[in-house]
Structures are given as structure tokens and as C-alpha cells.
Design goal:
alpha/beta; 11 helices; 16 strands; elongated
Length: 380
Amino acid sequence: MFAPFKRCTLASLVLLTLGGHAYADQQVLIGLAGPLTGPSARIGKDLENGAQLAIDAANARHPKIGGEAVTYKLVSEDDQSDPKTAVSVAQRLVDAGVVGVVGHWNTGTSIPAARVYHDAGIAQVAPVATGHAYTQQGFDTSFRIMGHDDDGGQVAGRYALDTLKARRIAVIDDRTAFGQGLADQFVKSVEVGGSTVIAREYVDDKTADFSAVLTSIRAKNPDLIFFGGVDAQAAPLARRMKQLGIKATLMGAGGFVSQTFLSLAQKEGEGVIALEPGLAVEQMPGGQAFARQYQERFNAPIELHAPFAYDGVGVLIAALEKADSTDPERYLPVLRASQFQGVTGLISFDTEGNLKNPTFTVYQVKDNTWQPVSVAGGKP
């Protein structure tokens, strides 16, 4: 029999008609949480699109759980990239009876939401949140499918020193859990490498004018500026650097590589370097086929993280079907032991719920496109 858990996780029956006969599929709800409105709405929609493609692919197989036909349905909630809203959103998804959640987008929302999912006993598969603190809370319901910032910051620091030969390094972060955590790890890596940071400046995640911090940094003559933040702020930062005549290379790690950055930065984005978790889409095992499917379905290119949302849904559904149950007591151990071949690569988890063997790709803007120039870590 189909195994419900604790609360009701099955929505109303879906009636299908075939050959004049009506069949009832049990409906299994999967949550998606991300910023669907506000400045980061393009990212949230990208995640939602990727997740929906995975739902559609699963339903096309006519899946069964516990011997009964099921239909998966995506239930999306808008957390507005706000930690307090994320907690409310998480509770709404739990109350709706989702069997698990793919989300949230960033670390600042994923951390507080994780407790809600843990208390409810359901899986949270974060497709993007890279702050290590998310999986350091000790919740056995928390998972992530890209490398975390402790690894990313260390890789970025080594690349800055060993490949870019940077020696006068300034660091700016946006004071978010993501941006500050990433910048801290970058600084540690630089210091372990025998160098020092000549300036450490701070903004917030709504700063639009970087004149003050850049004027202060310019006086110290840096050859590289590392920014712990995302694309919507990295672009005006890059433009202001050029306007102030700062010759230093701008570098980031996570959240830079998007169409949004290119359109906002324009020609001033040329030469910017960013390290992103995962492989470039064209280098992912299923990346090129996924990109074509995404373009055909949504008439737009992938914005940033859709393949990771696709795999977040995919690994969750695979665990449900292998466990043959929607009961977390049965599917969570299966999810923790996953060896899932996704679009982004092989997905398996360590004891904290982090992705094992994470890969990072270094990109550079050349001719107004993000071009991969190096791969670090993992097993490509």
C-alpha cells in the first residue's frame, strides 16, 4: 500500500481518462521555495523552471509508489530572499503536506527554514545555498547538491594567488550569511597561502553605490578585489571600478555567472573572474540536452541554477521511489545513501548532507560572455 506519513502528504486525487475508463492517481506534493518576487525573482523563477522540468520528466514515466500510480505536483512559495519570510514559507509548505522541499535559494533563508523542515521530519534539498553553516546545524533532513563556501573560498583563494598571481588583495562583502562566509574563507585561504589582505570593506545586500568603499580601496593600489556577493551588485561594482580608474581584477565566487551580470555590467564586465560551484552547463553530463529542453520550454536561456533545482527534485523523487514510500522514516535513509546520476553530475552526500566531491569552475567574461577557463576539485 501507499504509505502516508504523520500528516496527510497526498493531495486530492487526479482523475485521468483513458479508453473511456477513469483512473485515479494519488498526488504527491513537492515544495519549491525561493525568491519569486523582488530583485532576485529571476533566480527564483529559474529554480522553479528547473524543478518543474524534473516534475514533468518524472510524471512522464507514469510512476508508482507502494504499487499505486502517483502524479507529482510542484508547490511553489515565494520567500522573497528574506529569512523571516522563509520561515513562514517553510511552515506553509509543511502545512500543505509536501513530502519534501527543494530550496531555499540562499544561505540566509535556508538556515532558519531548515529547523521548520527538521521539526516536521521532511527533507530539505538546497539546490544552491552554499554557506557551510546550513548543514552544520546537525539536522538529518538537510542536504545540498553543490559545493559549500568553505571549499569554494579556499579554491578561490588559491586561484587568486597561484594562477592570477595577485599580491595586493582587497575584499568586500555584503554582510549576508553567504557573502560574509565566502569572503571569510577566501581571506583564510589567502593567508594560508602566505599573503595578506590589504583592505577589508563591507556593504549590505542593497548597496547600489560603491563609491565610498572603492575610493578607500583605490588608495591602497590593489591588483585584485574579491567581492562576497551576487550578480545584481557585482555588475555595478564592476562598472564603478572602471569609472574610478581602478585597474584591479574583480573576482567573485558564487552568484556572479549569469545573464543578469552581463546585461547590467555591459562592457565594464570584461575580464571579471568568478568561481562557481559545479561544472559549466556544457560540461555537465546532461547539461547540453537540459539547456536545449529549457530553451524550448521557456523560450529563454538558463539564468543560473536551473540544473541544480532539476537535480534537487530528481534526487528526492528517486529516494521516494526507491524507498517505495513517502514516509520520511523510510525515504530519508535512502536519500542519505543516494548515488544519483543527475544532469549536474553524481550526487551523493557526506554525513552532514553536503555534496561529496564538489567541483568548481572558474569563469571569465570575454566578449560579453561567461567562458569557463578552469575546473578545480571534484571528479569532472
